[in-house]
Give the backbone structure.
Amino acid sequence: MDSDPRLQSPLLFFFPTLVESSASSQLRHRAHFNALRLVCLFHACKKISPRRHRLFPQFICVVLFLCSASAAQQESASPPEAPKAAPAQDKSFLARWADFYRQDWFGTPASSPVPARRGAPSPLDSPPFPNSDWSYGGSPVIGEPDTNSYPLMTAINQARSRTKLYGWIDPSLNFSTSSRSNAPEANDVYSNRLELNQFVLYVERLPDSVQRDHVDWGYHLTGLFGTDYRYTTGKGYGSSQLLNDHRQYGFDPTLEYVDIYIPQVADGMNLRLGRFISVPGIEAQLAPNNYTFSHSLLYAIDPFTDTGLLATVKLNDRWLVQLGITAGHDVAPWTPDAKPSGTACVSYTTESVNDNFYRCANGINDAKYAYNNLQQYDVTWYHKFSKSWHMATEAWYMYERGVPALGGSITPELGANPAYCLPGEPRCTAPEYAAVNFLQKELGAHNFVSFRSDFLDDQKGQRTGYATKYSENTITWCHWIGSTVQLRPELRFERAWDRKAYDNGRRQNQLTVASDLIFHF
């Protein structure tokens, strides 16, 4: 007699309705759902004195709750089917998971009809590039179908549900001329070591923005553990592990939001409510969304996440506008640093789809000093030269008023730097500007090279701790194994032009050789 396939994997214990839809499965689901509630209650109430240690189990409980609830909704929405005998040679969960990788790495990619897409054609190939469209933040690509298939969901239920559970593991290795710190380089701030940058778990449901018939919805949760939590930490979201304890490894609930897609507004409108990646920019906090492993200096010091409401309206295939209100950059709405802040963006794509211009005013308020209360004005230009060559260019100007002077009587915010003000000034305005260019050459379906040039002027030293100009150049090769493994070795050289700013103020130049490896699951 065949064993119950759910007993072959703990994941299937929590997701029984993802693998069966018979009437009897409803009783099983209720029992497992009650067990899930007890697990969550246990983790929420367990007496563990440091509160930060409860973040990860609580996040897992929320993930399991939402996945089970989604599965239950799908089950109740469909009429019960007659019981079906399990195939005699039904594979276990782990065997199905392994088969996905075996087919991905060594098999022939399965051909299937291209799903309908509403809008202009995609300018890029993905893979090998991170995205197939010119990027805009704060919304799924309106008019693009969800065609992603992930190893974990294929093993669970053959990727038949709209709710998807997936993620990646991203270790890295770097060798540097600096011995104490690579800062302000990101994301390999710790020099000469092997480390786990990101272990990320996603659970999401994308709204169907291809159709124009009805309002649809989606949601997204991200849990991130690793050294890169320092680049997503927002004050009030378990931030004491970085701001107070200075932990090298930590957990951050990076993204928590819901999407409401309303097709009746213009060519489609998406409303996003929650915590999301700060809207403008070429680069992103999550590793697979970038051309290169390390990040530009421009990225390393700009806003990371915002919490609020953002409306994205697609006017037509050329124009898109965004308007939102947030609590400010990198702060939770319940912190004293939060203040109402406006975001407004306009995106224009040419008829040929070879060019895109994306302009944003981000986090605009009174600019008075608070935790990361940056006033950011950003412009991005994407250009496609040919089928295999394209570039992405970004520039921004940021500032903050009333920043406490270095060595003055006013104590700066915890986790923020003071400014190099003029002698006798207790506070001053701290501006900075930066520009970066990425040039990409596609070598084939699994390879591309990227060359990055970067300039930053931290005029008062408030973002990096040193008032100096910086330049940086990086060359990267990205290689895909199937669609589930990425290898990104790189060579990077950078210089602080006005003073020693590398290796904790001991060096003016820095050379690093590094690579990461992203394993998708």
About this structure: The first strand starts at residue 163 and ends at 176. Residues 203 and 224 are 12 Å apart (CA to CA).
